[in-house]
Specification:
2 copies of one chain form a homodimer. Chain A has 6 helices and 2 strands, in the order ααααββαα. Chain A is mainly α and 155 residues long. Chain A has a two-stranded antiparallel ribbon with strand order 1-2. In chain A, β1 and β2 form a beta hairpin. The longest helix of chain A has 21 residues. The radius of gyration of chain A is 18 Å and the shape is elongated. At the A-B interface, α1, α2, α3, α5 and α6 of A face α1, α2, α3, α5 and α6 of B. The structure holds a DNA duplex (30 and 30 nucleotides).
Amino acid sequence: MAANSRNDPRLFDSSYSYGQLTSLTGFALRRASLLDFGKFGDSVGDRAITPLRYSLLEVVGANPGLQQVELAKILGLSKPAATLGLDFWEKRNCISRRKDRDDRRSYGIYLTEQGEATLAQLRDNVRQHDERLTTCLSDEELLQLRTLLRRIYSG
Amino acid sequence: MAANSRNDPRLFDSSYSYGQLTSLTGFALRRASLLDFGKFGDSVGDRAITPLRYSLLEVVGANPGLQQVELAKILGLSKPAATLGLDFWEKRNCISRRKDRDDRRSYGIYLTEQGEATLAQLRDNVRQHDERLTTCLSDEELLQLRTLLRRIYSG
DNA sequence: GGTCAATGGTTATTGACAATAACTATATCT
DNA sequence: AGATATAGTTATTGTCAATAACCATTGACC
């Protein structure tokens, strides 16, 4: 089921005044982000796969053998959040935790074959989703937007 | 207390690979938005005032006599979310609900004097907060960014 | 070598938040 | 009048993530 109109902040109603909100970058970021988030589950065909969970899998895939603590740091998560997120993918046989021989407190995280396949599929769906979100922008504008956003969040 | 490093997604660690994430607009939006959100409470000097609650007050101030249902639609909220949000401000004597004479099911929402003062103060703090978030951008870039974001979220 | 602090990870507890559903009251349509 | 729709609130539920407490292992230091 598609997000209903109540949850769809795309419906910007210009017959009302938004006060100072329309001149705040933070407000614009939130609206755009919520819009993205709201459609994400449908786009990837599985409501359970949130942007966060997807990003987990992506980072694990890009950094085989990563520690959980590192993963958490990369994505700005708490330790428990990383644990839970990985539990989710482990239940789906997409990642495995291998005890590190040298430091037996920690695990190395790896994609399973199933995980590789799932990630490949997800990547495509997510890329398409992302393109749909930004169809209203030209390639140049898109590049510009990402560059500016990156400047903000990598401070 | 400032947000701790675990919650601060500004710490973008380029010694790891982010896979496809860095080329997704949605990812960039989320990171920037979370960064904004994380500092908001501190910026306005009151942890209880979230961006959502602030936006409520802003919209009420800009549209005196608004119905709750309209308010909800403007901000993409559910009816209960609007009710709760207004309860918050009503407890603080910042808004009042006046029964509409013509349609006694609905209320008109108005700022109280207290609400006007609070909003005025908030506006300043929020504007400063927003400027801090984007100090890394020139005025021109900022304008560009807002324009592009607006195109996205107003479909 | 033995204690003690620090680190990786999990579990337990809690709180915030928002969504749906159900309910009350009022309005509208026929 | 009776059926239906609408404004608003309350109740219930589920998700999410954060903190704190906990276990196991490591490493530093005396």
